[in-house]
Amino acid sequence: EVHLVESGGGLVQPGGSLRLSCAASGFVFSYYEMSWVRQAPGKGLEWVSAISYSGDRTYYADSAKGRFTISRDNAKNMMYLELTNLKPEDTAMYYCAKGGRGPIGDQYPERGQGTQVTVSS
């Protein structure tokens, strides 16, 4: 059974930074592309970033380019998302999900419970 646990969210001021972590278990982590997705209040799921199974290729939504950095440690079954220069519009529940970017409307069924990021002064 796929088990994904996110951590590292919190309340941060605009311009601040956070590092999100995702602990994976129940599957062979190193075999799969992984993603971060987010859901802002009252909105649908938004794909944010993905990383190849080996970590050598990364992909970002336009909203994340230049500010967020995705990485993974296959030896530890961990994935990370470094968030910098945060903006109020980044406020959302952030989820890690098994697999790469899905089509618009994808519900990313294999995802964790999420970690809340709130950007506010």
Q: Label the structural class.
A: mainly beta
Shape: globular
Query: Helix-strand pattern, N to C?
Result: EEEEEEEEEE
Overall helicity: under 10%
Radius of gyration: 13 Å
Low-pLDDT ranges: none
CA-to-CA gap between the ends?
40 Å
Counting copies of identical and different chains, the oligomeric state is single chain
The spatial strand order of the largest sheet comes to 2-10-9-4-5-6
The number of distinct β-strands equals 10
For the biggest sheet, the summary is: 6 strands, mixed
Strand content bin: over 45%
Give an overview in words:
With 121 residues, the chain is mostly beta strands. Helices cover 0% and strands 46% of the residues. It is built from no helices and 10 strands. Strands 2-10-9-4-5-6 form a 6-stranded mixed sheet, with no helix packed on it. A 4-stranded antiparallel sheet has the order 1-3-8-7, with no helix packed on it. A hairpin with a 4-residue loop joins strand 7 and strand 8 (78-83). The protein is globular, with a radius of gyration of 13 Å. The N and C termini lie far apart (40 Å). The mean pLDDT is 96.
Question: Could you name the key traits of this structure?
Answer:
single chain; 121 residues; mainly beta; six-stranded mixed sheet; four-stranded antiparallel sheet; globular
Layout of helices and strands:
Elements: E1 3-7, E2 10-12, E3 18-25, E4 34-39, E5 45-51, E6 58-60, E7 68-73, E8 78-83, E9 92-98, E10 115-119
Parallel strand pairs: 2-10
Antiparallel strand pairs: 1-3, 3-8, 4-5, 4-9, 5-6, 7-8, 9-10
